[in-house]
Sequence to fold (572 residues):
Amino acid sequence: MARHLITSALPYINGDKHLGNLIGSMLPADIYARYLRLRGHDVLYICATDEHGTPAELAAREAGLDVAAYCQQQHEFQADVYRRFSLSFDHFGRSSSKQNQELTQHFADSLERQGFIEERETKQIYSVEDERFLPDRYVVGTCPHCGYDAARGDQCENCTRLLDPTDLIQPRSAISGSTNLEVRSSRHLFLLQSKLANELRAWIDTKTDWPVLVTSIARKWLDEGLEDRGITRDLKWGVPVNRPGFEGKVFYVWFDAPIEYIGATREWADAEPGRRDWQSWWYEAEDLQYTQFMAKDNIPFHTITWPSTIIGSREPWHIVDYVKGFNWLNYYGGKFSTSRKVGVFLSDALELLPADFWRWFLAAHAPESDDSTFTWELFASAVNKDLADTLGNFVNRTMKFTSGRFGNTVPAEGTAGDVEQEVTRELGDLISAYSAHLDGLEFRKASRDLRAIWAVGNSYLERREPWKAIRTDRAQAAGTLRFALNLVRIYALLSAPILPATSERILAALGLPSATKWPTDDLGTELQAFAPGRPFEVPDVLFRKVAEEDVKLWTGTFGGADSSAVRGTPPS
Fold:
């Protein structure tokens, strides 16, 4: 089977993340990784906290902590939240690791040897009141391209255009709000992306199967003329620049953060002796498929800046094979925002309902072809109709009715007939479509297929009516329920990528271990695998419904269509 390397965009270190962050990279990557493992592939799923840059310094100052201690605390907090969301990282690393420092310095040295690094004197914004140079993102002002009045000095959050702080109209310090800013000279290193533009375009042109969202953003950058990019900053927190005269400077966070994909793989390998050499996943690694997951604001860095680093090094690092980009998940028509605490944050979500409720809604409403929207009304509908009324209803009524009439073992009477064969064929077609959409990273379509698969079970019970047959033909009722119990098993296996905790609960009730294999193509045999005499227990109700009162309460708490009050609860 193939080897698959999977990475999702690194969540930034400062605070709790929102549902938009989850569906924009980590959740779809997890669903894909879980699916591939069930299909028997060798999978390495890597992620990490992105810990460098001024936001970490400022957040640490606000928390009254040393920046290293702050990042350690926040890394542990985020790792715990993602664990509770059942994200199956093989390793969740840290960009502040010694492995990433060594690799970042290595790439800078390699790029310089190849003539793609240049030292330049730059004009930078200095805040007189703050007594410091202001890194790009801590100069804010009005975007010269779209007029957004809270654009950062590195990128406009609204139109996603890359900026320099000196581009901003009416700039001010994000630290103090002061407009007493001066332009002063400072020497920095630049990655000469302009020299690599033709190679980057040729590489992008080979990616004919990538989402249009991804290639269109990459080509837009190339068509507008690729500019050289500063890769150092006047900061103390970060990867030190290993160059005479650059003491007190660090590498730009967007230079070292993607390198952490490799760094985290080294962390994973170093954590347990005897693991496969980390280099086999990155260096001269031609026998694997590398897939990245990210939201559209990260696409420019992953299709231009990070590939520039790899291509310019002239070393045989494995460059990404497929980039799965996502649009925005909006909150009642506006953007989720960590910095402005707009929307539902992950720790809040888990206080309300278990992770699988959220995983289902997000997968079923993944912002793939365009932006999608979270509302409490849509969320309640997805939970109630799909999870409670379709999957949950089928599982609970099948197992409860069987237990009540035949005891807690699979009944042996009755045989499969034409109806069961017809259902098996229908199910086989749906499973084929579901698998194809997971292979193609089409998560909304895959969720639609899975919902249709669940619905087959309810339709089957309505057609067979074992609650009536039990009065006149006990054998027929037994055969129907045995077939339905085997559908329960199949549903647990197929649901495992999206609903891992629910899958485990169902399989545990059937006395079976957690899912490790995808159902085989021989569906007829699979639907007899839970054989007569096998014991089972009736599980508690799998999904509680979201009531109208819940929607009203949560809309009032978090904001919604009739409220401008929104909040999040980042950890202290």
